[in-house]
Amino acid sequence: MSTIFTQIVEGEIPARIVYEDETTVAFLDANPLAPGHTLVIPKDEYERLNDVPADVATDLYDTIHRLVPVVEDVVDADATTVAFNNGEEAGQEVPHVHCHIVPRFEGDGGGPIHAIAGEVPDLDDDELDAIAADIESEA
Ligand code: AMP
Question: The motif Histidine triad motif: which residues (predicted)?
Answer without folding.
Answer: 96-100
